[in-house]
Amino acid sequence: MAKELTDFKNLCVHTITTKPWPIEKAAQEFSAAGIGGITVWRDALAGRDIRKTGNMLRDLNLEVVSLCRGGFFPALTASQREAAIADNLKAIDEAEALGAPMVVLVCGAAPGQSLTESRQQIQDGIMACLEHAAAARVKLTIEPLHPMYAGDRSAINTLAQANDMAEAINSPHVGVAVDVYHLWWDPDLENQIKRCAAHNNLAAFHICDWKTPTLDMLNDRGLMGEGCINLKQIRGWVEETGFNGFNEVEVFSNIYWHQDQQQFLKKITSAYLQHT
Amino acid sequence: MAKELTDFKNLCVHTITTKPWPIEKAAQEFSAAGIGGITVWRDALAGRDIRKTGNMLRDLNLEVVSLCRGGFFPALTASQREAAIADNLKAIDEAEALGAPMVVLVCGAAPGQSLTESRQQIQDGIMACLEHAAAARVKLTIEPLHPMYAGDRSAINTLAQANDMAEAINSPHVGVAVDVYHLWWDPDLENQIKRCAAHNNLAAFHICDWKTPTLDMLNDRGLMGEGCINLKQIRGWVEETGFNGFNEVEVFSNIYWHQDQQQFLKKITSAYLQHT
């Protein structure tokens, strides 16, 4: 089991978690709560000067943990795949401007072709972005997604598959994100976390909970403690590897987005101390 | 790839697929369409003399393929687990009365305990039913369920896990059901199908499709050809093992249940020939 959490310096909150707040408001509130990090979703940057926004975050003592998200490489036509690569190069530029050390990849899947084919296109797409990522000092972080998203969001559905790909690419500019929502059910999870870290690929750790029942496949995640994920155990496995990065709260929730966000942030910090 | 399907003698339809029809109507319609098999859900037997219903099905030249469903063994208290075992013994009796050679198990999972614990309770529950199953000549068939059901419906989420358990129990009265909806995404599927058959555990093959998007986690399955499952390839893997059982159409669909069931049955037989 992981050691108890007593403060928020390793807590990072994703802007999408408090989606109703503009990034400026979210940053002020996170900072006032003593939260150490922020992961920025690209939609939160719309209409902003990205470089100034990064400075604003740092002025509030928030570490910019990552930019979400790149990916969606697979497509049925070459021109669509090229457009996807162009968008990922743009995401790398945005991360560099923001001062984010990584871009998290939701890798994609294209209905109409096999998952094997989609995985090859993901690998090709990442390879095509590597030089640009290296120049920008930005890591491309493969996030395996739950198998319920294999149809259209990611052909990489287990940590083993993400590890396979990161090891095949074998670059310091590629890593892996472990998100408990996607991976908690996997009987091989502990081993694959160890393997991920042993190859220096463990780059991010995302937390939330899996509610029973889950009412919406995308936007009904629970806060830590509201569901059935063995989160303390998984955090223990992650920290046993020596990982000392952030615990990133990434909650998509129609329910919480409709609530008062200040109250919600209190629930987040409370759940973080009690149930993470 | 599998050989082309040209008739319906290996087609089995689950009563729940055409849920609005009482079993008597479903049986007449299936039989009139030349369909060879029927899998009976227990709710379809409510208020019927089960033995007479089995005879009615056979009189219509329908082979009774299986009874759905038993399982749901895990629970937080011993008395609940005993009640679950009692219900499974009853399901075995019903299968025997109906003349069904197997009971399909949706194994269960109990929020509040680990998946490992739930799996142990599943194994214990099956073992507790084995003698009764042997006496009734009924096979207990473990169906691994999609990881999106790990929270509350099944702690067995891959074919590897189902194979592990069937091999650990090692009884002629235990088998495994392969359902493409639950397993299509698994990169190890072909190997695990081979392994399943090599241990004489491949007892059932369920088909449908995975739609993108999927609007409901339980009741938005697609007919074959409507989604992204590599069904012909998977059927090929199954048949290469020598499996010559039924292709069972198991579709839970709020959309189709609201349509004219006679038209829907035509769609099923058409999709079966074209897309299976």
What's the topology here?
The structure is a homodimer of 276-residue chains.
Chain A: E1 11-14, H1 23-32, E2 37-41, H2 50-59, E3 63-71, H3 78-98, E4 102-106, H4 115-136, E5 139-142, H5 159-169, E6 174-179, H6 180-183, H7 189-198, E7 202-207, H8 231-240, E8 247-249, H9 254-257, H10 261-275
Largest sheet of chain A: 8 strands, parallel, barrel
How many individual β-strands of chain A? 8
As an assembly, this protein is homodimer
Provide the β-strand percentage band of chain A: 15-25%
Alpha-carbon distance between the two ends of chain A: 11 Å
**Major β-sheet strand ordering of chain A:** 1-2-3-4-5-6-7-8
Helix content of chain A: 40-55%
Q: Give me the Rg of chain A, rounded.
A: 18 Å
Element pattern of chain A in H and E: EHEHEHEHEHEHHEHEHH
- Overall shape of chain A: it is globular
Count of helical segments of chain A?
10
What is the mean pLDDT of chain A? Answer: 98
Highest-level CATH class of chain A: Alpha Beta
